[in-house]
Model the fold of this input.
Amino acid sequence: MSVKTEKEVQYILNLKKEAEDATRDRRMAADELWTLYQNKQDYSKKKDWQSKIFVPKVFMSVEQATAIVKRAVMSPRRLFKLSLKDLKDEEAKKVMPEIENLLKDRLNESNFSQSYAESIKEAFLVGLGVPKLVWEGGLRFVNAATSKTFIDPDWQAGSVEPPKYTIEEKEMDLAELKDMAKTINKEAGRPLFNMKEINSIKEDRRDIEKETEERIRKGLSDHNKTDKRVKILEFWGSIIDKETNTIKKNQLRVVANDKYIIRSQENPFDHKKSPYLPVVVISYPHRGAWGVSLVEPIVKIQYAYNNIINLGIDNLNFSINKMFEYQPSNLINPKSLTHMFPGKMVAKHTSTDAVKEIKTSGLGTDSFMVMDLLQNEIQKGTAITEFLMGTAGKSKTATEAELKTAQAQGLFDTIARDIEANSLAPLIEMAFDLLVQFDDIPSELTGRYKFDVGGLSLLLVRREQTERIQQVMGLALQSETIASMTNIRELYSKYLNLLNLEDVLADEGQGPNQDQQGLINQQAQEQAQKQVSGMSDEEVLAAAEKMGV
Done:
């Protein structure tokens, strides 16, 4: 290994340690949150007969929050739209609908919705998600594990500037690495991967402790990988030479087994950005890359809720499976009480009670009151309320439901707008840049469009928006003056988008098809017959003369 290579490897390892040390507490908290997400709690000290129920409050809060985002990203057609940076740019305006449809089609064809939903789920759970966008014959989105991603701790979420560095750690089979490197080199027509360095790798490098942590986090059983493993560090960012104080920006390095640099080049993407776009759904002031988990505030409440449920069930067990006290000297055969069954006769030789039930109290109303209190606090702590999910009971008044729904939507509307501005918009712009680089979109259109993302925040107020559009459309259809001031087609298009029915909107100028036209003609004929049937002969003749018949 050359001195230069050794210095670069050590520099990358030092940066990884810096980021890992800075986020140690967050990673420990994330481990606990993953355990709760798997509906696990330490009940090892409980007896076999005791209840060990886990109520999935953390799990369902994360899943319900993720579902809100996933519903929006599953249909890129209503997620965003293009607009011109220069309103006078007629050339870009002319092809904008075509380019917008192409971009939406490419996102829809890719794994965008599934992968991004996983990243958002992790962000809701632990406070950070790391979507990654690369090109593998087309757009490919990856959800990089936060436990194995190390980001410059000084970087602030939402910052215009990207992190100084991002390092992803992963393991792969040595044979798989060799095959991948040969394939990429062949497709590129040049040696992007250093095959000499890869072929010199002989050792089996794996971190058993981290493998175990990752396995537990994934909820998998204990198992060992059969084939020889290689530890990979993928570095994107700036490399600084401390001796000369020079900086190399936009660098890509791939390090194997903390020793071999198997890929070394400048950022291969024309946009010169890291493919990682960290997403923080709830920011923590001045913390940096790691934000706040949606469910971290309710961790202790989750434990309390589980404990009260289990104590209540234990108490109920005592009430159903009753305890008895007995006096052996009053029984003819005391051992007969060791085998009890309904209807059993017990012989005794005295008139006094030989067996007496021990009275235990059932579940008190206090238990239910506390559980209701904890349930309310869980909803307040996560903002995932029955009103937000549309499951509020009938006992709520319309005014109360409207106010509570607005309160719940308040936090999620803020989260949605942050995700749109700081995550989705940059991610869609990067997808556009990759499509330009790989010839799906003409290069002369680079930098001429803005990406207006609004589908996520719009989804949260869907019912309110549909009611407003219905009111406006009603006014426009009743008044020619208002209709002349309103873009009816655009209004109706938005209405269909809110109802997930945008595909039924005909292209502009297309008009009804043959079947639709026949139905329209039939309805018009029936309407005309109804009008004529109520007219006198003189009125019919007058109408015919007026129409020139």
DSSP finds 18 helices and eleven strands in the chain.
